[in-house]
Design a protein that fits this description.
Layout (H helix, E strand, L loop, with lengths): L13 H25 L7 H21 L3 H11 L11 H18 L3 H20 L10 E7 L6 H11 E12 L4 E10 L5 H9 L7 E5 L7
Antiparallel strand pairs: 1-3, 1-4, 2-3
Helix pairs in contact: 1-2, 1-4, 1-5, 2-4, 4-5, 6-7
Length: 225
């Protein structure tokens, strides 16, 4: 039985490979710089941005391999289905950038070069405009207050009296027993009055909870908890 090696690379040239990979690299790198420029929170990860660039080139390579062959496409889906990712995405915005580089990589890999360039530039411009003009921002700033109190007696009334003095509104979020029942942690979301410093609120709450821990998180919507 003769054994022959079949070369399937005739469906695209070396130039096609070079253009697809180079274009996906340039556009993915541009997307990475836009992500870096518009990132607000404290969870910036260099490895994540590098992964965006790698992912864009990888998707472009995959599309070159798959081409219009349905059998290869199903084989690829089966092969990739065994991959499991353990890292959680901290921001929903990060998912959007992942899908963006995937779309650009698919367009470059299928040799829709104009589509890849126009789409990448247009979407990146929209992202920069939304960042620059702070679209859809909620101007109401809220804080999270966590107070640990001993389990003996009802101290919520005293805590609420303090919150009435220092805040314009507050809402009880949760009550949780911690340290094996030795303490109770109470969490509120609040809007502090103008001119009120978090330190003053912490000191007032400390007088009501027998010297246990008090935490005030300001700008919690801009950080990763």
């Amino acid at each position: 039985m003769p054994f022959e090696i079949q070369d399937l690379s005739g469906t695209f040239s070396v130039g096609d490979i070079a253009i697809a990979l180079l274009l996906s690299f340039v556009l993915s790198a541009m997307i990475g710089w836009v992500y870096r420029f518009t990132h607000r929170n404290v969870s910036y990860s260099q490895s994540y941005v590098q992964t965006l660039v790698i992912l864009g080139m990888l998707i472009s390579l995959i599309m070159l391999v798959v081409g219009s062959n349905i059998a290869r496409a199903f084989a690829l889906v089966g092969a990739l289905s065994v991959v499991r990712f353990r890292n959680a995405i901290k921001e929903t915005r990060d998912v959007g950038f992942i899908f963006l580089v995937m779309g650009i990589g698919m367009a470059a890999g299928t040799r829709f070069y104009s589509l890849a360039i126009i789409a990448a530039v247009a979407i990146c411009l929209i992202i920069v405009v939304m960042y620059r003009f702070n679209w859809f921002a909620l101007n109401v700033q809220r804080q999270v207050v966590k107070v640990q109190v001993p389990p003996d007696g009802d101290r919520t009334a005293g805590l609420q009296d303090v919150l009435i003095r220092f805040t314009t509104e507050f809402e009880l979020v949760s009550m949780e027993s911690i340290r094996g029942g030795a303490l109770t942690e109470i969490m509120y979301t609040v809007r502090m009055k103008k001119g009120v410093e978090p330190g003053g609120l912490i000191a007032a709450l400390g007088e009501q909870n027998a010297g246990q821990k008090v935490t005030v998180l300001t700008g919690y919507d801009q950080t990763d908890l």
